[in-house]
Amino acid sequence: MVMVNTSVGLPDANFAATTTASIGAPEFKSSNTGYTVSGKEQKVPTPPGVAVSMTYTYDPRYPPVGSNLIDWAAPFFTARAPGIAAALKAYALSNGVSSGVYTYRQSVYVSGRTTPMTLFWQVVSMADGRHFSQDPQLLPDVPAYLQFTYTPKRIAEGLDTSWTYPNAGKLAYRLVKQDLSPLTGETLVDTNGAFDAPVYAGTGPIPVGCSQDATSGDVSCSQDFGVRCLIDKRSSANCPTTFPDMTTLMEDLVAVGGTLDYARALSPVYDEVDDPERPGEKLQIPRVAVSIDSRSVSRGRMFFFISRGGGREYIETGTVGYALRNQTDRYRVTADGQFEMAGQAVTTAISPTRAFVKTAAITGSCASYQPDQIIDPFNTVQIYNWRNDTVNRLSAANYVSVATLICQ
């Protein structure tokens, strides 16, 4: 088999292109790699008519979305496949080889992705005239998955006004790896509850996502109407169209699949404690929740009469609020918009939140405050072990997140 390979660089390198050719025994690797030469290969001049220019140029300050790039590449490559196949066939017949393969690879920036991707296309031509080519693909170094999270606005109804849920009615999304570790930062979109499950009050117009039985007059509402619209806005003519949906974003961001977390229930978490005024009786009190988002110890400063390491400062940031139990349905979504229920999770969130920044002058090494010594997030600047809170008498469960201490 004769193998012809074109490689095109990034715009940083002025889209530099190189084409090489070789003859060797063919081996099919995968749909992402196609045919390669197995074992030894012999370098040969590029066959005439094969190395045509196919460079996609763009301003790197405004990289294309994945779907736009594929929309350009598909007709471009399809139109050139017959000519390339004919040139490979002619070379195969005149040089005693069975077939030929042309492979195109261009490194490209894609909007929304943090690392370059590869635009890949391959056409195979047999000496007897048969040829075939695959659709162009965008191949990432690391496969990305789209993570969607939606918290309905209505989910916060019925909570005490002091427990207003900050993300109610909002959509959050980001790209993650297969293990769900983030590839990009989170984007938050306030939909004002556009994807809430529809509810019919009994009078007035019937909401979208609900239908009325022609015989009985009963109205039924789909609890998954918002789910379907979040996954693919084309699933119903009544879906909101001004917000992103998973199917479109997976195509634009070149994600191979995704998950949708759709919150179904939200309720305060209560702890049962002894009533100090009525021995033997119990009280239900809202659970305080503390999130310590960052902890660091400065290097300290060096003055004439102060030893090295003096003037160290412990800095801590975080939030304090009430614990809320969030029941969430998780859906597994394929790149073409098919989905299935993957499970249900119960997590703990904090609402409302009060941010704090605490500082404390300390002595000694940073190591002496590892790993669990924190500054009191409430009224003092005492330093204590949060796993054994003797200052506020909180249990370890009240500390929903504690960041690692950084020694600067």
How does the SSE layout of this entry go?
Layout: E1 2-8, E2 17-30, E3 34-44, H1 66-95, E4 99-108, E5 117-126, E6 131-133, E7 137-140, E8 145-151, E9 170-176, E10 187-190, E11 210-212, E12 219-221, H2 225-231, H3 246-253, E13 257-268, E14 270-274, E15 282-286, E16 288-297, E17 301-303, E18 306-310, E19 312-334, E20 339-362, E21 373-375, E22 383-385, E23 399-402, E24 405-407
Parallel strand pairs: 1-4, 8-13, 16-23, 16-24
Antiparallel strand pairs: 1-2, 2-3, 4-5, 5-6, 5-7, 8-9, 9-10, 11-12, 13-19, 14-15, 16-19, 17-18, 19-20, 21-22
Outline the structure in words:
It is a single chain. This protein has 408 residues and is mainly β. The chain contains three helices and 24 strands. The protein has helices at residues 66-95, 225-231, 246-253; strands spanning 2-8, 17-30, 34-44, 99-108, 117-126, 131-133, 137-140, 145-151, 170-176, 187-190, 210-212, 219-221, 257-268, 270-274, 282-286, 288-297, 301-303, 306-310, 312-334, 339-362, 373-375, 383-385, 399-402, 405-407. Strands 8, 9, 10, 13, 16, 19, 20, 23 and 24 form a nine-stranded mixed sheet that branches. Strands 1, 2, 3, 4, 5, 6 and 7 form a seven-stranded mixed sheet that branches. It has a two-stranded antiparallel ribbon with strand order 11-12. β21 (373-375) and β22 (383-385) form a beta hairpin. It is flat and about 100 Å long. The protein starts with a strand and ends with a strand. Residues 302-309 have low confidence and may be disordered.
